[in-house]
Amino acid sequence: MNNQQKIDDLKAKRAEALLGGGQKRIDQQHKRGKLTARERIELLVDKDSFEEMDVFVKHQSKDFGLEEQRFYTDGVITGTGTIDGRTVCVFSQDFTILGGSLSEYYAKKICKVMDLAMKIGAPVIGINDSGGARIQEGVVSLGGYADIFLRNTLSSGVVPQISAIVGPCAGGAVYSPAITDFIYMVDKISYMFVTGPNVVKTVTNEDVTFDELGGAATHAIKSGVSQFTCENEVECFQSIRKLVSYIPSNNMDTAPVYEYDGPMDNELPELNTFLPDNVNKPYDMKELIEKIVDENSFYEVHKEYAENIIVGFARIGGRSIGIVANQPLVLAGVLCLNSSIKGARFVRFCDAFNIPLLVLEDVPGFLPGTDQEWRGVIRHGAKLLYAFCEATVPKITVITRKAYGGAYDVMNSKHVRGDINLAWPTAEIAVMGAKGAAEIIFKREIDAADDKVKALDEKVAEYTEKFATPYLAAERGFIDDIIEPKDTRKKLIKYFKIIENKVDTNPKKKHGNIPL
Ligand code: HXC
Questions:
Q1: Ligand 1 pocket check: which of 69, 104, 135 to mutate, most ligand atoms within 8 Å of Cβ?
Q2: Does domain 3-244 have CATH number 3.90.226.10?
Q3: 33, 172, 369, 376: which one is catalytic?
Q4: What is the DSSP string of 272-286?
Q5: Fold category of 269-433+468-498 in CATH
Q6: Could you confirm whether 407 is annotated as catalytic?
Q7: Residues 6+ apart with CB under 8 A from 461
Q8: Which of 210, 363, 402, 434 could serve as 463's disulfide partner, Cβ 3.0–4.6 Å?
Q9: How far apart are the C-alpha atoms of 409 and 437, rounded to whole Å?
């Protein structure tokens, strides 16, 4: 071959690689309602930014007829691209090649791009659509998975890891996405489970469909395995691009700051009448979030799971923050087992990646009951407490209304290193609600009274007047200031700037032992 022929040969090989497992299988993929691995990368990264690595890799197996099926890429496309100009490392499993199944060399490719991500400090985005371990390769493929799991773990807290599940993801293969920071699933085409419906039927005699067992809705609402559900793949990759805009590229970096051209020090007079006068009436905390953060910047995480707590990213004055807020609309905003886990995981992500935290608090306490106690609300509630205690990023709390009992301590109180703790004048910082408190401490007087209802009402009023306020906490410096609700946004912008470079440290250790 002369030089020109060699160049033409290279082009021909690349063109062959672009066809993955061939046009027929690409058509089948489309018929399944799914995009191809390459189409997905195009949607994810900036136009023309993708640089593919290892396109010429082929498997080296000779068993079960595999030697006849050697495709370029070996079933996974790996490389780098940019999102809004920032480098990301990507792998995209190609179902058109042997069902996207994972072989020895396929795993090596994923490991290589993950190693690169660690060296250059870039997020890893994994697009998962695979039949699992390449059955013909046996244990070699299992070893490949373990090599990836190890890298997922070592990368955790160093570079953000994001998984899109856009096809099957079953068996031990689920544990790679499970270790990553965020999982996206797409309605109707994604499923994740450790054992599929047939095995479930054999072992537990349950009849369950793929979708019920491990579809997008199941993992968003019931199991909490996934954080984001999308209607289609286009929305999924747009949404991942959006997530990346809020987070830094690695743990030594800070999130990008966006120029915000809206008002920065505006008062929000409507907030002075935002809370209902009746303390037992719910209101929508999301409405409050939308009002105080930069317009349209709130990006909710884990939206459909444990809705009594809200977590998500937003910008305030152009800067990324993570928000953890009680939601009085659901179970009165109580903390429970699932909401504690949800909150804790989010707090730890923000802390690992230098994203300041804002806590909006209206919490009547932990959820009582045998169900919660027996399933370990003590152990799981402790996770949220632990996460706030260990977090050293800038942390601000605003108590809008209830801050009762242990939940007061947990929700980024001053005592667990809240940097700035503010309260609205409507805040009630107390051991418990006024009625419960009056019934206990004034039991004898109430029992002795002729009109018990009137006596209780009086005692509730007395307790409310004295204790259901922010002033006792403020007297002791547990609250730094009591602010008018209308000033919340402007104070937050100011305070986040003030504490931007705050330094807090934890004692040197191998790692803590968070109650798991
Ligand atoms: C090799 C595989 C494969 C696999 C699919 N294919 N999975 N080849 N190893 N694991 C091939 C099929 O033979 C087929 O080849 C092509 O991919 C497309 O598969 P279809 O079955 O036609 O597609 P579909 O009907 O959409 O079904 C998809 C599927 C099914 C549900 C994923 O293929 C399936 O059940 N596959 C096996 C899943 C499995 O048991 N994997 C091992 C799990 S254990 P042709 O040539 O016909 O197009 C595991 C352990 C991981 O993964 C452990 C980590 C610790």
A1: 135
A2: yes
A3: 172
A4: GG-S-SSTTS---HH
A5: 2-enoyl-CoA Hydratase; Chain A, domain 1 (3.90.226)
A6: yes
A7: none
A8: 434
A9: 18
Instruction: Please list the pLDDT of the chain residue by residue as tens digits (516 residues).
Output: 999 999 999 999 999 999 999 999 999 999 999 999 999 999 999 999 999 999 999 998 888 888 888 999 999 999 999 999 999 999 999 999 999 999 999 999 999 999 999 999 999 999 999 999 998 888 999 999 999 999 999 999 999 999 999 999 998 889 999 999 999 999 999 999 999 999 999 999 999 999 999 999 999 999 999 999 999 999 999 999 999 999 999 999 999 999 998 888 789 999 999 999 998 899 999 999 999 999 999 999 999 999 999 999 999 999 999 999 999 999 999 999 999 999 999 999 999 999 999 999 999 999 999 999 999 999 999 999 999 999 999 999 999 999 999 999 999 999 999 999 999 999 999 988 888 888 898 899 999 989 989 989 998 888 888 888 999 999 999 999 999 999 999 999 999 999 999 999 999 999 999 999
Instruction: Name residues contacting ligand 1 (CB within 6 A).
Output: 98-99, 101, 131-135, 142, 145, 168, 170-173
512 noted as active-site residue: no
CA torsion angle for 352, 259, 235, 112 (degrees, to 10)? -50
Q: Which of 407, 434, 438, 473 is catalytic?
A: 407
For a substitution probing ligand 1, which of 101, 145, 165 has the most ligand atoms within 8 Å of its CB?
101
Rounded to two decimals, the pTM is 0.95
For atom 32 of ligand 1, which residue has the closest CA?
A: 131
Residues 6+ apart with CB under 8 A from 277: none
How far does the centroid of ligand 1 lie from the alpha carbon of residue 99, in Å? 5
Which tokens hold the place of 283?
A: 């209101």
